[in-house]
């Protein structure tokens, strides 16, 4: 009886561990739209394919400060934003207003 209980407990722990790690890094829903000012802060993107625990295709945009947004890859604004990010030179940063010299 103890052996059966031990096996059942072990299998339960393994199943819980697998279920927990499956959805850690997956998009489960999309944002409808990102405003133009928010889109300007997008610095990178990656694609999510529906396999394993991730059950929807998505484009995951990463913002300057590390925040991420999931978007539907079929939306036109998503395709346009991906193209804009791809056209940017690597390592190129626009000067911020506070980085510009003061001209008083």
TrEMBL record:
The keyword NAD does not apply. Residues 23-85 form the Chemokine interleukin-8-like domain. Residues 82-104 are annotated as: Disordered. GO terms for cellular component: extracellular space. Residues 84-96 have a biased composition (Basic residues). One of its GO terms (molecular function) is chemokine activity. Residues 1-19 form the signal peptide. SUPFAM superfamilies: Interleukin 8-like chemokines. One of its GO terms (biological process) is immune response. Keywords: Cytokine, Signal. The keyword Lipid metabolism does not apply. This is Chemokine interleukin-8-like domain-containing protein. The lineage of its organism: Eukaryota, Metazoa, Chordata, Craniata, Vertebrata.
